[in-house]
User: Which sequence fits this backbone?
């Protein structure tokens, strides 16, 4: 039985559920002949109440990273986690993250580690619903044509509530009260979270260097009850859609509210979840749908990435 030391950055909802899942799936690690040892969990305040397994080593001192074989990043944000991960990545050790903003906006620095197979980030898009894995493996053989996706649960919730007659402001307030939307909610409702995720996807099916700045972004702040009612009267629903398609010799990437037929897969499979429609010349049309947020849903993908690393599968390698 070999011991693998794991460091966890952040202990919010996702970080806590990662720690619980590592304990819950001990049988899988045992079958691999591995004992997972959490060397440390970096937090801002060790006295804050958290739901973590007994004996979890919470600390404000990141020096424990020096002894870790793998790091799971669940902090969020961009510059702070990158500062912590930078020396770790440079030491040729693997990182598992769900941080789509970091991946989208700091790709110039992270790309070399992804190309080396040391960066695992299935959870960064659609959380526990696997889309990056297929795009980085079997779908490489198919000529990519187009994708459309609903990738933000907060916007999905707000637009669905508006279909029931609530104003945008009422639906947003409710989403915040339920913990679906951040305060301020700009990343979600402004379309930026979706654009981050679309950028990550584009690097697997269009261009390995696809820049975040190339995504045209329009959020849902301007959608009114009249807009929603007009769409419903026409047999349509309004969704915040991420879209990527060929445009001449390049690619057109856009995030915007769109009216879609009620029968569209993004309105049926993605009624209350994230959903993605992938079109390839050889593969045809594929539909992915499932939970795109939530602590345990996200943790399932992150621990899955840990298992991939233990088995010997490389991280998620973009197009070269």
Assistant:
């Amino acid at each position: 039985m070999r011991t693998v030391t794991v460091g966890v950055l952040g202990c919010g909802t996702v970080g806590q559920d990662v720690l619980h899942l590592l304990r819950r799936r001990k049988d899988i690690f045992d079958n691999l002949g591995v004992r997972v040892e959490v060397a440390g969990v970096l937090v801002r305040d060790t006295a804050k109440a958290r739901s973590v397994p007994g004996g979890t080593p919470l600390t404000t001192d990141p020096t424990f990273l020096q002894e870790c074989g793998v790091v799971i990043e669940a902090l969020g944000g961009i510059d702070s986690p990158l500062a912590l991960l930078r020396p770790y990545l440079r030491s040729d050790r693997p990182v598992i993250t769900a941080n789509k903003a970091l991946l989208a906006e700091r790709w110039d620095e992270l790309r070399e580690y992804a190309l080396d197979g040391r960066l695992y980030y299935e959870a960064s898009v659609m959380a526990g619903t696997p889309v990056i894995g297929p795009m980085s493996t079997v779908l490489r053989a198919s000529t990519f044509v187009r994708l459309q996706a609903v990738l933000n649960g907060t916007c999905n919730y707000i637009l669905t509530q508006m279909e029931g007659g609530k104003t945008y402001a009422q639906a947003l307030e409710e989403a915040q009260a339920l913990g679906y939307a951040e305060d301020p909610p700009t990343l979600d409702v402004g379309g930026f979270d979706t654009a981050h995720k679309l950028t990550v996807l584009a690097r697997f099916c269009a261009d390995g260097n696809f820049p975040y700045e190339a995504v045209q972004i329009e959020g849902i702040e301007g959608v009114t009850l009249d807009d929603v009612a007009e769409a419903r009267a026409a047999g349509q629903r309004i969704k915040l859609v991420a879209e990527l398609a060929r445009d001449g010799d390049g690619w057109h990437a856009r995030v915007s509210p769109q009216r879609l037929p009620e029968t569209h897969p993004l309105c049926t499979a993605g009624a209350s979840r994230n959903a993605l429609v992938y079109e390839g010349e050889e593969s045809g049309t594929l539909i992915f749908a499932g939970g795109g947020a939530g602590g345990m849903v996200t943790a399932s993908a992150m621990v899955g990435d840990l298992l991939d690393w233990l088995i010997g599968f490389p991280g998620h390698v973009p197009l070269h």
